[in-house]
Structure formats: C-alpha cells, structure tokens
Amino acid sequence: MKHLRILSLVLFVLHCNTSPTGRKQIILVSDGEMNEMGTQAFDDLKSKTPIDTRNNTNSYVKCIVDSELGVTTDTTGVDSWEVIVFKDNTPNAFALPGGKIGVFTGMFSVAKNKDQLAAVIGHEIGHVIARHGNERVSQNQLASGSVKLLETLGKPTVAGALGMGAKFGVLLPFSRQHESEADLIGLEIMAKAGFDPRESVNLWKNMSALGGGKPNELLSTHPSDETRMKQLNQAMPKAMALFESALQSGKKPNCVM
C-alpha cells in the first residue's frame, strides 16, 4: 500500500513538473529544502577552500554572472546569488540551489575568454533552474522507498545530489541527460546575454585537449566531448538568432580580467 501511495505521488508530480526544455520531471522536494541544502554545502566549502579575493578575477566572474542572470528566469525562490572565486587549480565551476556559484581559478586556463567562461557558468546555472539536483534527490528517495530521505542524507550525498563534482565525494552525479540539457539551457542563456554561443564549442575543444584518460561515454555520467560539441552545433542556429537579437538590443557585456 505504501508503494502504491508513492507511485501515485510520482505519477501526479510527473504531470505537474517540466524542465525548461519541456522534459517531464520527478520533483518531490520543496525548493526551500533544496535551497537550504545548497547554502549549507556552499558554506562548508567556503570554510575549507581558499578564496581568491583579487578584484580583477572577482569582477570578471561577477560581470559574466550578472549578465547571464539578467536574462534568466529563476523560479526556485532565489532572490539574490552569491558568487565566489576559489583558489584551486582544478578546471571546475558549479552552481547550487540557493543561488550559489563557485568558479575555481583553474577554469581560467581552460575557458580562455569571457564567452567561453559564460558557457561554463550558463551551463551551471542551467542545472539549478532546471532543478537537476532536486531530481537526483527525488530519484534517490524513490529508490529507497522513502519520502523522508533528506533527514538521513550525509554531506557527501548532499554534495553529489547538488552536482558539486567528483572532487567533493559525489555519490549522485548528474546524468548524461542532465548534462546535455544544461548544455542547451546554458547555450540559450549565454546567447541571450550577448555572449557568442559559438565559443561553447571551442570551450569543449579546450576541455577535450586536457585528455586525462576519460572513460568511454557509455561508462560515464557525462556525454563525451564529441557528443557535446555535436549537440551544441545542432542547437547553434537558434542560439545565433538569440545572440544577434541580443546584440541589436545593446547587450554587449564588457567583462574583462
């Protein structure tokens, strides 16, 4: 009987929740709970990781974030976003529920210009506004047969559910579907903000050049770099139209480091 109630709940929410791309979603956790989880995880990271306080790096990142948030509709209950640049050579960035964005200094050597960094940040914002972390937590709740799993989640599981990357002991990484969806949402965000969407493909060329013995796509939770570039190129005509429209409306972000 308990399982039938859970199934009924899932069928109900499947008809009520869709991602920005129109995909049906399982969302069982309130935005308030997810935002609290994101804030706690971010505060924990700030207490353990050196923060880059240089004006040039912070103003550069904040310029890109502000430009992209200016064209983004966030319906997760976040009024303002916090942006931190962390001193870490790992080429990584993330966004968390609760309006938290972190960029590692190692990303600057891979995202070689403002447009490429906008592709990274737009992708991460895409994860948040598409509620991908919520989906991961909700899916784990269903797998456990409980709707109170959040009460027993440990910090590593929370970090994984929120998509903070393998560096933080992820147990619930984003799926290939989530990654591909975030790529497309991010592409649209950066184009609307006046960043050249073509640079998203160049970003992944840079990432691919890093090598590192990545696993085969079928064994990984991330699409291969080649797949990502193919999907981005397929979506490029629409993105270029949005980009041209943004330029005509005067959106030309002057983000420099």
From TrEMBL:
Cofactor: binding comment: Binds 1 zinc ion per subunit.
Peptidase M48 domain location: 75-234
Keywords: Hydrolase, Metal-binding, Metalloprotease, Protease, Zinc
Signal peptide: none
InterPro entries: Mito/Outer_Membr_Metalloprot, Peptidase_M48
GTP-binding as UniProt keyword: no
Superkingdom of origin organism: Bacteria
Cofactor: Zn(2+)
Coiled-coil positions: none
PANTHER family the record matches: M48 FAMILY METALLOPEPTIDASE (PTHR22726:SF24), METALLOENDOPEPTIDASE OMA1 (PTHR22726)
Family the UniProt entry places it in: Belongs to the peptidase M48 family.
Descriptive protein name: M48 family peptidase
Organism: Leptospira levettii
